[in-house]
Amino acid sequence: MFDALSACDEAALAEVIHPDATNREAVREPLACRGRGPAAFVATARWLATAHSGLRWEVREVVQEGDLVVAHTTMSGRQTGPFHVHTADGAIETVFPATGRAFAAPQTHWLRLVDGMVVEHWANRDDMGMAKQLGWVPPGPVYLAKMVLATRRARAAA
């Protein structure tokens, strides 16, 4: 699944993502990511790829018990595009302009399987650690002004 997400590979995701799968982490993502099945996971992969080059997950450990699989990973990449955070109704809430910086953040992904396919996903992520590495937090005055302008432009374009 992680390799398919990194590559935005629709065919590979269709092989591992159940047609009724849901991603609980998609609540701050574009509306297309909040649906069900492989198409929603492809939308998430594309959303991440618009902001991050070389995005990949290094799987460190995997544990399975019954229909539950837990993968401890490190997500890494470089922010080369704007990262859009969305509201509950799908509007753009905040835009973090590209910094060109690399990041590597630990994550734990929880996957419930049905018939060997992912039917449910949720995660624990070090978003604050990633934000610090990317220079989002604490925002300096120049970066804060760039955020405000990028957010206004993205809202106007939407």
Automatic annotation (TrEMBL):
The record's Gene3D superfamilies line, in alphabetical order, gives:
3.10.450.50
Q: Which InterPro entries match?
A: Cyclase_SnoaL-like, NTF2-like_dom_sf
What does the record list as coiled-coil region(s)? none
Which BP terms does GO give this entry? polyketide metabolic process
> Its domain of life?
Bacteria
Name of protein: SnoaL-like domain-containing protein
To which species is this protein native?
Pseudonocardia sulfidoxydans NBRC 16205
